[in-house]
## 1
Amino acid sequence: MDLIVTDDYDALSRAAAERIADLIVTKPTASLVLATGETPIGAYRELAATLRQRRADVSRLRVFQLDEYLDLEPDDRRSLFGWMARTVLDPLGVPLANVVRLDANAPDLAAACRAYDAAAAAGGFDLAVLGLGPNGHLGFNEPPAPPDAPTRAITLTEASVASNGPYWGGADQVPHRAITAGMSVLLAARQTLLLVSGARKRQILRRVVEEPATPDVPASFLQRAANVTVFADREAWPSPPPARAANPSAGRSA
Ligand code: GLP
């Protein structure tokens, strides 16, 4: 696990976008799983501009949805697919036919989750772009989540309902159930970027990077995954303290 600390959110967004663009330019048929949430929005904006500049071909990318609320009507404004379309798919120009969705309206959810895992496992993810829940979740892999957790339906913890409340006008607006890409497929990604910004993520990020991996902090299992880079801004990883991270390469500044 590599930790890159940037001066601020804009620098974090630029650095992450550069990484994502490099992969797309090198491998235009790449499979990506892309988080929603606020943190990656800046990186996606930068990425759209960078890809235009570099005249990259996005027509053959494959994009997997990371998580989705359950119990919504298909056109509900709270759908995370809608969020993903607005913040990344449309700005990049990724054809919707190339998107593997988590189908919250499938008549058989368990079968839909198995189909997602099979599609993900077929080629594997070349890149996972993930955010960090304030309770350490990845996607909606709520704690406790073991590293072999499959794609599945879950019930949100109170902490996640509260932390997502501001996005939808209050905690009472947040759906209580969701489906999430499983830990197993996420941890198998060939490259992972974990984007972390802001003081409210400070404590949980230290646990992710420095403490032994535990189901109580699902993101801590990234310590054992291949080719993981944590991009944190100084708000999330203040300097000092000196990092005594799970991996000696952690603690680098950018
Ligand atoms: C949300 C989502 C995650 C997201 C994370 C962080 O609850 N389920 O996919 O990455 O929490 O969100 P944010 O970047 O807005 O802090």
Note: Confidence is low (pLDDT under 50) at residues 246-250.
## 2
Amino acid sequence: MHQPHVFLAAHACHPAQSRGRRHTQAPAPTRSEFQRDRDRIVHSTAFRRLVYKTQVFLNHEGDLFRTRLTHSLEVAQLGRSIARSLQLNEDLVEAVCLAHDLGHTPFGHAGQDALNECMRDYGGFEHNLQSLRVVDTLEERYPDYDGLNLTFETREGILKHCSRRNAQLMERREPGDVGERFLRGWQPSLEAQLCNLADEIAYNAHDIDDGVRSGLIGMEQLCDVPLFERYRQQALKEFPHLRPQQEQRRLLNETIRRMLSDQVYDVIAATSQAIAEHAPRSVEDVRRSPAMVAFSCGMSAQSLELKQFLFRELYRHERVMHTMALAQQVVRELFRLYFEAPGEMPPAQAALAMAGDEMKRARVVSDFIAGMTDRYAAREHERLTGRRLLGD
Ligand code: MG
């Protein structure tokens, strides 16, 4: 038998008290239910595709930029480290962090916006809902059901946002499932709340690193961001030899390292305080309390400032915008081409698309495109149009 989690707090998710899976399964002999979820996610097809999906920079732009896969690993590392300090369930946090971006389209947010626009008349496209759709429906790994058959708690964490309309649809189909909390204003487990914040901590830090590496943002610009400048000054004070130009890479790494550590300690302190204040005695108490995993007010304001800086100077940079416009064109044209000629998709998708009405066909096309890696999408677009818009 697997070891019980002796160090879990009362308000953590205990595997033995899981709300279970849609298809009942006997417990695994050596692993907890959430370890099992984590393992299923790591072995899924969608997980392997993350390596060729864009975080901010397209895959062909450089080998050292983050991809969705390395981003997800960094989120999981931060999440686990905070979870252990707060006596939350580390296995559940790891499972949710590794799965949180499975539903992302190729080409990052630009791809998602384009696909959402294509799906406007067919129920829309939301990447959080798509991540859940991947683990619930699209993965084909088991003989007698679709999806990975994950526990309620992991699925709850994966669906971090959901429109009211989609929550209502889900609730009608399966009352009391993971859509319910969006209608009742409940919080998810602390483990799920933690994954959201770990995501934010991870991308703020690694987007600075990738932004500087790409040459799109400079260290001088970053000096105007108080959160960054504070740690840069600290690093320089302790290691004055990092001042010269040739040491800037090391200085940048040391600054980001300090910023990450401090944000982790800040979340642990602020969350411990919130937990002490609301004193939840179970996960059900957590769900009915206000959100508790958070930065302190000061860190929250500074993190927002950094986010706004990255938005202005990196995500909206002319060069990024230019690539993203091409990426959106690829997605829009692929959608139109497959929708009009479903036979251009592989046989399984083509058969599914041709068997249903327009709504169904649009969803099959949307699932097919959402599952693509950046380079597969660019190649398919070239095959169908004769034009290469992205990559080499
Ligand atoms: Mg993410």
Note: The mean pLDDT is 94.
